[in-house]
Amino acid sequence: MNENKKKIILSGMRPTGNLHLGHWTGALENWVALQNSYSNFHLVADYHALTTSLETGDLYRNTIDMVIDWLAGGIDPEASPIFRQSKVKEHTELYLIFTMLITKSRLERNPSIKEQVRDLEIEHITYGHLGYPVLQAADILLYRADLVPVGEDQLSHVEITREIARRFNATWGDVFPEPAPKLTTFARLPGLDGKDRKMSKSMNNTVLLSDDAGTVDQKLRKAPTDPLKVRRHDPGRPDVCLIFTYHEKFNPDEISEIRIGCESGALGCVDCKKRCSERISAFLAPHRERRRRYEEQPSLVEDILRDGEERARTAAVDTMTAVRDIMKLG
Ligand code: TRP
Questions:
Q1: How remote is the CA of residue 97 from the centroid of ligand 1, in Å?
Q2: Separation of CA 220 from chain center
Q3: Domain-by-domain residue ranges, the chain?
Q4: Distance spanning both ends of the chain, measured CA to CA
Q5: Whose CA is nearest to atom 15 of ligand 1?
Q6: Which of 16, 30, 43, 142 maximizes ligand 1 atoms within 8 Å of its Cβ, making it the mutation to test the pocket?
Q7: For 134-176, how does the pLDDT look when each residue is reduced to its tens digit (9 = 90+)?
């Protein structure tokens, strides 16, 4: 395929520090799978991290840790620039213009803001928090992306992005494509504390992509299984067990054997967990291998960001020139 004809993907995450298996199945795995067939931009949404709380910890450190996880996961920074939102100033420029293209009431109807206000018990919402999806629209449209890989929770933001693109194009002329969401397929991964809660840093129920084999083993050992399987030979119910979900994801070849073993009582939870943690550790082994280089030489990560930021900026300046021209800003 002609390089220039590849469709453009913009993917982004807030810098939350070390990533876990939930980030892998929910996002990163998809990014890696898509990287050869598309032209990708990978954004660290550091300004977005400030929208829900100003107590973000060390944003720079969290960025570096997260980017190392991206690289260890197999993102190729030569093929796809990795960059920080706050280092490409065109994001804030386009964001400002976009704030004029959407109403306050539309943003107040955004379901994810309502959820955040409820879950984080936010009493007074800031102007910037309300504008979260507008900044996200700028992230996406600045690179004139065709596709955005997201989970269900982000669909409303892609919809707002499309509305803003339409509004801009209808007012001044065609500059932006209407990007489509590309949904990640694997359902969310349960956390170590039980089947109904998803893996999340704030719940402290994660297996980190950077955990070593011993840590994975220890974490799984403490996880609950089917409460009705009390003794080793009691029959178990794989479908209520989070370890079985991990087997489904990381040990698909042995899945029917595990199910039969659990249901018949032949396989005890201790052994089942051991096999699971071995598979997870084997899956993480190449990550560990690639990670070593970046941990030994942290300046490599800075170089990758600097290079990615330059390349992102070139694309961003190009779009802003088109925007200014068509708006007759001069
Ligand atoms: N809102 C996204 C999240 O919380 C992060 C994000 C910011 C993003 N800008 C983006 C995702 C642009 C996709 C495209 O996960």
A1: 19
A2: 23
A3: 8-189+298-327, 211-291
A4: 37
A5: 13
A6: 43
A7: 999 999 999 999 999 998 889 999 999 999 999 999 999 999 9
Cα atoms in the Cβ-side hemisphere of radius 13 Å centred on 223: 34
Q: Of 181, 99, 96, 171, nearest to 140 (Cα)?
A: 181
pLDDT digits (tens, 9 = 90+) for 18-47: 999 999 998 999 999 999 999 999 999 999
The CATH fold of domain 211-291: Tyrosyl-Transfer RNA Synthetase (1.10.240)
Which two three-digit tokens encode residue 229? 């399987």
User: Is the CB–ligand 1 distance for residue 139 below 6 Å?
Assistant: yes
**C-alpha 1 to ligand 1 mean position (Å):** 28
Q: What CATH number does the domain located at 8-189+298-327 have?
A: 3.40.50.620
Distance 110 CA to ligand 1 centre (A): 15
Q: Is 14 in the pocket of ligand 1 (CB under 6 A)?
A: yes
Question: What residue has token string 């990014």?
Answer: 31
**Burial (CB count <10 Å: 0-12, 13-18, 19+), residue 51:** buried
Length of the chain: 330
Q: Provide the edge-to-edge strand list for the sheet that holds 147-150.
A: 82-84, 39-44, 8-13, 147-150, 180-183
Q: Cβ(83)–Cβ(46) under 8 Å?
A: no
